[in-house]
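Q: Given only this backbone (252 positions), what sequence would you predict?
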């Protein structure tokens, strides 16, 4: 069994528009593990997600990101996706005129580097939709066009199911969801989790973690991991907030 972490972030520093957001963040995730990152607004949570996927808006000024033992820093976003990294966005965009089925087929072919026969693709698509308890009609709709918040997040779960990444990063997937939609999306994530995949949940609130249980919880404050622990840490933060940790970090 390999001892190399699936994803290893080493002393990561990153800026946007010349402002440093990540200030020495380190984190290791192994296959089969679920990690949650929590933190107040402006702590760098979404910046981390964007930097992991290689958004050109952000500049890495120090440290490294290793995925399966290889540095990601020289890789473009599409190459990172081909390598097995997946990001579910906080605010998925609409693509009017492009159906889910065509979008998913092109995305899967791009990841594979070859065309999957249509019959195989459809069998896989309908199998994944059944797993996620989705109506097949959903695949004929335009990507996120007119979708509710919950439907947008379910669409991303279908992308996750079809692309079968090694490492999934969910950036505030609970944002804007009511309790029923949150439960539905969480059930989809749990159905797709497997021993070969790592999962990083980025969230502001503890409620998502009631449905997707992490083994590890990390608190991100001012661009650094201020504290790590088990799932009980999320429950503690729900009652105490982030003020004490922010004050301790400021006085350190």
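A: Predicted residues:
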């Amino acid at each position: 069994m390999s001892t190399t972490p699936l994803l290893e972030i080493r002393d990561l520093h990153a800026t946007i528009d010349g402002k440093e957001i990540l200030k020495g963040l380190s984190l290791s995730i192994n296959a089969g593990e679920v990690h949650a990152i929590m933190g107040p607004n402006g702590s760098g949570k979404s910046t981390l997600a964007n930097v992991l996927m290689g958004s050109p808006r952000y500049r890495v000024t120090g440290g490294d990101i290793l995925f399966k033992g290889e540095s990601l820093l020289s890789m473009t976003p599409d190459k990172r996706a081909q390598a097995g990294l997946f990001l579910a966005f906080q605010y998925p965009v609409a693509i009017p005129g492009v159906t889910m089925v065509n979008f998913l087929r092109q995305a899967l072919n791009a990841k594979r580097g070859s065309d999957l026969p249509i019959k195989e693709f459809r069998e896989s698509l309908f199998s994944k939709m059944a797993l996620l308890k989705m109506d097949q009609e959903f695949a004929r709709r335009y990507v996120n066009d007119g979708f509710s918040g919950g439907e947008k997040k379910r669409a991303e779960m279908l992308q996750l199911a079809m692309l079968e990444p090694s490492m999934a990063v969910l950036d505030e997937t609970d944002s804007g969801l009511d309790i029923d939609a949150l439960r539905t999306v969480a059930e989809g994530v749990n159905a797709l989790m497997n021993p070969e995949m790592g999962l990083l949940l980025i969230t502001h609130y503890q409620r998502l973690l009631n449905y997707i249980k992490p083994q590890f919880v990390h608190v991100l404050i001012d661009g650094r991991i201020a504290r790590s622990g088990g799932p009980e840490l999320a429950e503690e933060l729900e009652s105490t907030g982030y003020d004490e940790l922010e004050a301790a970090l400021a006085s350190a």
